[in-house]
Amino acid sequence: MHQYPRLTVRLEWFLAVKRGPRTVNLLRSELRALMRTSLVQVTGDPKAEMCWAKYEQEIVIGYRVAIEGWPDNVLFKDLSKQTLRLKLLKNLVQRWKLGLTGFRQLTEAEVLERQQNQAGPHMKAPRVDKGDKRPQCQKGQAGRRKKHICYTKSERFVHSEDDME
Description:
The chain is mainly α. The chain has a domain at 19-117. It is built from six helices and two strands; from the N terminus they run αααβαβαα. The longest helix is centred in the N-terminal third of the chain and has 23 residues, at 21-43. The model has no long low-confidence stretch (mean pLDDT 79).
C-alpha cells in the first residue's frame, strides 16, 4: 500500500507527539492554573495569587501556607524565568494533579519559625567609586560651552514710509 511504511509510521509518530515552545508554554500555563486553584482552595481567598518574588513574605507569612513536595531536580523559582525541559515540566504538572505537590496550611509555630528564619531587607552594595573625587569639567577651550548668539531675523530699526517722506 505505502511505498515507505517505516517512514510513514515515524512521521505519524512525530506529528502526534507535541513538542516545542508552544507545548512548554501550554504546560506552564496549566501548572500556573493548578497552583492558583490550589492556593485559592487552601487559603479560602478567591483573590489569592502566587508571588514568586516575595514568596516567604506574601505566601508563607501572609496566607500561612507553603508548597509541599516540590521536586529536588526543579529549581524553586518563577517558571517564566527558568528553562525547564519538557519531561520535567510534565512531571511537575502530574505531581500537582495527583496531589503529590501542593499547598499546605501551616501551623502557628511553623509560621513563627519561618518569620524568625527570614532574612532582613536586602542591602544594596555601595558604588565602586564611593568616596573618590569625581572629575570636574575640563578647563580650557575643550571644556567651555560655546555660547550661541541668536540674531533677530528682522532689521534692527524699521523705517516706516511716513518717515521717508
